[in-house]
Amino acid sequence: MMPQKLASTARMAYDVGRPVALNPYEFLRFANCPKPAKGLAIAGSDGIFLDLLTAIETQHRKHVSVSQNDMHGYTVAYEREEIQFPVYVVALIGAILATIGVAIDNIILIALSLFALGFAYYNFPLLETGKPRIGAGQYGIFAEGLGIVAWGSIKQIEMVPVDVRGSTSNELRVMLEDPLDKALIADWRRRPPYRFLMRLPWIAAPGNIIRIPLDVFDRPADEIMLSFSRMMTFFRR
Q: 184-197: b or e for each residue (b if 16 or more CB lie within 10 Å)?
C-alpha cells in the first residue's frame, strides 16, 4: 500500500473510530513517509489505540541497537593532561603504600592504599584519551553509560557556571520533557561489572535534568554548548 493511500485509509478509520491494521511492510513504508500525518490511529499489539506518530516512535525505539562503539557525529573525549596527572600520581602512591603496608603488616597503610587505589580506579576513564564520551548526532544527544536521548524529548539545553571550592567550572544541563526511561532511544546504562563504579561523564539530577561537567573534555565548553544547540535546532526542524 502506498504511503499516501495508507494515510488516507488511516484518516478515514480514525474518523469513524476503527483501528487500522498495518502489516510490517505497510508500517515501515508509512514510517518512512517524509511527513507522516499527526492524529492518525492504529491498533497496537495490545489492542490499544495509539497515535500513529507515537506508534512509529515506539517501534523505532524497540529496534534501535546502537552500541557505545558506534558514536558518530559531533563527539567529545577526555584529554586534559592536568586532569590525568593526579590520577597517575595517586595510583602510584596507592601502589607504594600497599607494598609497604603488606611488607610490614601495617593495616593503616593498607587502608590508605585502598583509598588511593579506589580514587585511581574511579577516575580511570580520564586516562582513556580519544574515546568519545559525549556527543550529538541525528537522533539526539548521547553519553557514555547513558544512551541516546531523543531530540524530541529534550526541552532545553543550557550551560551553567558552577562554583566548586572557590573555582568556577562549566556544566551543561539537559532538561527533558519526558522521564529518562522514555527519553532514551538507545539505553547504555548496563555496564560491564569491572566498570560499574568508574566515573561517568553525566549526572542524573532531580527534575528530569542531566548534568554534564564540561571542563574535563578536549573541547572548550563554549564550543560544546554551541555545537549541541546548533544540532538541536537543525534536527528538530
A: bbbebeeeeeeeee
For range 109-116, the mean pLDDT: 96
Q: In one letter, which amino acid is 39?
A: G
Nearest to 125 by CA among 194, 205, 29: 194
Domain spans in the chain, listed from the N-terminal domain onward? 3-63, 68-79+132-235, 81-127
Give 170-227 pLDDT, tens digit per residue: 999 999 998 999 999 999 999 999 999 999 999 999 989 999 999 989 899 999 999 9
Backbone torsions φ then ψ of 45, nearest 5 degrees: -65, -25
Place of cell 562503539: 69
119: exposed, middle or buried (Cβ count in 10 Å: 0-12, 13-18, 19+) = middle
Question: Measuring CA to CA, which residue among 115, 107, 125, 67 is closest to residue 91?
Answer: 115
Contact 73, 138 (CB under 8 A): yes
Task: Read off the pTM.
Answer: 0.69
CA distance 133 to 68: 9
Contact yes or no for 177/183 (Cβ under 8 A): yes
Question: Are the C-beta atoms of 118 and 125 separated by less than 8 Å?
Answer: no
Of how many residues is the chain composed? Answer: 237
134 phi and psi, to 5 degrees?
-135, 165
